[in-house]
Amino acid sequence: MATTNSDKAWKAYGKKDPYFGVVTHEKFRDKNLSEAHKKEFFETGHKYVKRTYAIINEYFDADFSPKSILDFGCGTGRLVIAFAPNVKRVVGLDISEDMLKEAAVNAQKLGQPHIEFYLSDDKLSAVANQQFDLVNCYIVLQHINLERGYTIIQELINRLKPGGVGVVQLNYTCQKGRKAKFVDYFRSRIPVVHGAFNLLENKPYSDPLMQMNAYDLNKVFFILQKSGLKNAHIKYGADGDCLGVTIFFQKE
């Protein structure tokens, strides 16, 4: 969809409405966020982790018990905190310093102070030359420009230990009509147009544009195969007008 850099929007959500930036429901906006809503927010993370382990156990390793985990695009810590119990080393990466600060506070409050949080980049430089038993990236890549996203997928594969499992979610098509695509084009390039449509949608004028990019699965599977990955399992999903997949893969 957009060609603009997505980091600016994510950093803006980190300063205002960080939980809404992760799960776009009105109850998770700063103005509506109660302790009950925050508890619900983190419970969705535990449900995700439970489903993820169930799939890994069924299709790859019935005894899978990672000692090290990397979560790319960790936001306020929703998934990385849920992954942390009984794991020796857990690392969360994010482009937003404000998100990372909030995640660190949440990890301390929720009894997982050993989680490490680092600023991210496309090369995952904060964990250069390091490998993990599990790498995870969920509802993140669609908000990142495509060429950068392909680079990140490769770097996530590079961070896997032999026998390790990767979990990467991405969209592969957004079934919008020509009119909607036309609007998206101008929203991504002219801030005042985006702000005006925010108001029409009963959103704050200043809400940053949240990109929804669709990846070419041919390119994604080429990256996986040329990296020597022989086993993969696919789960289909949808997010509004967009259809996506979660790809589970294991390093030989």
List the helices and strands and how they pair.
Layout lengths: L6 H9 L2 H5 L12 H25 L8 E5 L5 H6 L5 E6 L2 H13 L6 E4 L12 E6 L8 H13 L1 E15 L3 H10 L3 H10 L16 H10 L4 E9 L2 E9 L2
Helix pairs in contact: 6-9
Produce a short descriptive summary.
The protein has helices at 7-15, 18-22, 35-59, 78-83, 97-109, 146-158, 178-187, 191-200, 217-226, and strands spanning 68-72, 89-94, 116-119, 132-137, 160-174, 231-239, 242-250.
Give a description of the structure.
The chain has a single domain, classed as Vaccinia Virus protein VP39 (Rossmann fold, 3-Layer(aba) Sandwich), CATH 3.40.50.150. The two termini are 35 Å apart. The chain has 252 residues and is α/β, with parallel strands linked by helices. A seven-stranded mixed β-sheet has the order 3-2-1-4-5-7-6. The protein has nine helices and seven strands. The longest helix is centred in the first third of the chain and has 25 residues, at 35-59. 40% of the residues lie in helices and 21% in strands. The mean pLDDT is 92. It has helices at residues 7-15, 18-22, 35-59, 78-83, 97-109, 146-158, 178-187, 191-200, 217-226; strands spanning 68-72, 89-94, 116-119, 132-137, 160-174, 231-239, 242-250. Helix 6 (146-158) runs parallel beside helix 9 (217-226).
